[in-house]
Amino acid sequence: MTEQPAHTDLQPLNDLEEKLAKGGQPDASPVDVILSFLNSEVYIISSDGIEGEDSQVEPLVLGNADGDPVLAVFSHPSRVDQQYLEAAPNVLGTQGAAIIANIGDELGMVINPGAAYGFEINPEGVANIKRDFKRADEQ
């Protein structure tokens, strides 16, 4: 397996990654990261391809350090590590807001597992986002 050069992993590829990169800075706003996630195209991976408009997919769910299930979400297709593609070769783009709207109550989420720009949200955090962030047309 070939490793990607480290410098490409550290270069933000889109608005969401720019917000994630600022995440550790004192002036960083978690709200900015969440809003960028909700309004960005993000990617899940699945062993299933999309057959039609109504087709259901089973996205890749990983176990976190505590063994709890987390949905793997990626900010850019190039952030999907080869080991994940072996288990789930289909990369599917969707809105971050759609991920939050459809994620189960027991499931957390990990953005860019193993990459420089990433973070994990536990199920309570996902529930808080569902509660606190409404689409502009739902206000």
Q: Quick one: how many beta strands?
A: 6
Strand order of the largest sheet: 2-3-5-6
| Topology order in helix (H) and strand (E) letters | HHHEEEHEHEEH
- End-to-end CA span: 48 Å
Number of helical segments with 4 or more residues: 6
Shape: globular
- Report mean pLDDT, rounded to a whole number: 87
How many structural domains can be distinguished in the coordinates?
1
CATH class assignment: Alpha Beta
Structural class: alpha+beta
CATH superfamily: Uncharacterised protein PF11572, DUF3234
Q: Any idea what the CATH architecture is?
A: 3-Layer(aba) Sandwich
CATH topology: Trna Endonuclease, Chain: A, domain 1
Largest pleated sheet: 4 strands, mixed
Summarize the structure.
Helix content is 32%, strand content 19%. The chain is built from six helices and six strands; from the N terminus they run αααβββαβαββα.
